[in-house]
Amino acid sequence: MVDARPAVGRTTPSHDLNRRSGRTDAPRAGTNPHSAANSVAGLVLAAGAGRRYGGPKAPVFLGQALRALSDGGCDPLVAVLGAGAHQARSAVDLAGVHVVDNPLWAAGMSSSLRLGLNTAAGLPGISAVCVHLVDMPGVTAAAVARLLTHTHPGCLARACYDGEPGHPVLLGRDHWAQAAATARGDQGARAYLRLWADQVSVVECADVAAGYDIDER
User: Fold this and answer.
1) pTM here?
2) Which residue(s) pair with 129 in the sheet?
3) SS3 for 24?
4) CB neighbours of residue 178 within 10 Å
5) Do residues 92 and 59 lie in contact, with contact meaning Cβ atoms separated by under 8 Å?
6) Would you say residue 175 has pLDDT above 50?
7) Among candidates 2, 18, 27, 33, which has minimal Cα distance to 177?
8) Opening angle at CA 10, ends 169 and 1, nearest 5
9) C-beta separation of 40 from 169 below 8 A
10) Exposed, middle or buried: residue 198 (CB in 10 Å: 0-12, 13-18, 19+)?
11) Can you point out the beta strands (E) in the chain?
12) R_g (Cα) of the chain, nearest Å
């Protein structure tokens, strides 16, 4: 299960505002016993049916997504599969990758995010997860590496492209339980990042990568 230990509350006047807006107390770096570790797991969400694309994208793009994360500094790697899982296993070398099958993939990206975070929580020495979407072939190892410079257990960071927020997204371990709990439908961590927008480090990556998803091309 995702580490669900309660976060330590802030003692500033924003505490009451957070509760009225639905936010719980913000996790803080250093509150987790794993905080001495600094490894980042690379998590690819690749379970969707790819209806607009014409079929599952995992068999076509998963290898590229995993390489971008690995070459950018993520270790270990986690891939969540659903539609097209059999084809992806046949098409992509998944040796050394923690592969998770999502039987509820049709419920949306949120179910895959929860499974991925649960998997990462069971791996030793992980302080953060770099969440990547399988259908973004313009994301490079250089963008991942730039994002990873913000790594610590309380981090929240995301790549942006010419000021537009995108992926990958970096979730410190202290945020996993709340991010999983707030994920709904096909939104993944979007609601959680919006809730804590004032704490998210925005990392410009347009000079080293492209933030489009494959349905935009």
Assistant:
1) 0.84
2) 41, 171
3) coil
4) 23
5) yes
6) yes
7) 2
8) 50
9) no
10) exposed
11) 39-46, 77-81, 98-101, 126-133, 156-161, 164-172, 201-204
12) 16
